Request: fold
Amino acid sequence: MIAVLKSPREFPFFAVTAGVAASGIAAVSLLGLDRLSFGICLFKLATGLPCLSCGTTRALGHLAHGDLAGAVVMNPLFATGALLLLALGVVEAALRVSGRGLRLAFSDAQARNAWIALAVFAIGNWAWLVADGR
Amino acid sequence: MAIPFERGAGEGLVGGFAETVMRSLSDPVGLFRGAEVKGVGRALAYATAIGTFVQCVGVAYLLLLRSLVDIEAFAPEPMRQALKDAMNPVDLGFQLILTPVQTVVGVLLFGAIAHGLLSATGTVRLGFEGTVAATAYSYGPMLLAVIPFCGAFVGFVWSLVLLILGLSTLQEAGVGRALLATLVAGTACCCVGFLAQIAIAPVVILVRTLITG
Reply:
């Protein structure tokens, strides 16, 4: 699953992607995008129901303020994904400093199970957003 | 070794385009490592094709949604007029016509600033065309915008990572310098884009008023 490599990879995917995500989180907080007085989701405007990613901006705003629980409640899928990505990025950056690397390696069965788990999580996430009135 | 879309026309533009998109998604390091670039024409054509297609997809989704429901009626007051204006045929037409121009100018401007920074902070393997190629060939993941709702967001983040990877690998500049160049050039391009929108808004409003009365 997660393998520590003896030498760093040519490009630190996790660290860079986590850096981009962290920049996005900072931008959300600095620009106050999580505090808009109106929604911008066309799906919700049209149907009255939240889309799969509704609450993501507010979840990122919670993350920016260190409120992990608030972020997960706001959008479990994207908040968990962002936290996982940030953790992998920090680990990869730390390993790179010590001359090592990090990679995710899945067998076919593991990859299939991971996709199924992600699909179930996404459906559960959407059900939560609808139930919570996002 | 050349990026697939940079190969001779005899090998097929469409095939080269598709192969470049697929490799930018599946093997980005391999796509950029040691690649040779001839001029900026092919790279700009690649970015323009993707940028225009993505813009068309966005407009199509908006029109499809509008045909199904009265979006303006659902929108809260601060968004109502903005939505109405954004879906005016004149505004949509301007968007579609200007997208190729915006893409070419954006890629060249970003490339110029990023290349200046990369050159100022160390050596680069290729000239200006290499930086433009890294910028343009990072557009591939934006095609994920065809996936409704979160596709555009995921594609944008992926493109940004691919851009940093492209600059660091193609120009052999290192991740730190590529990050710095992306941050500075990206911020500058956002500011220029914002000012350009403000500058062009009166023209759009004037044409809209002349056509729709």
User: Anything to note?
Assistant: Residues 40-212 of chain B form one domain. Chain B has one domain: 40-212. Chain B touches chain A through 28 residues (CB under 8 Å). The CA atoms of residues 5 and 18 of chain B lie 8 Å apart.
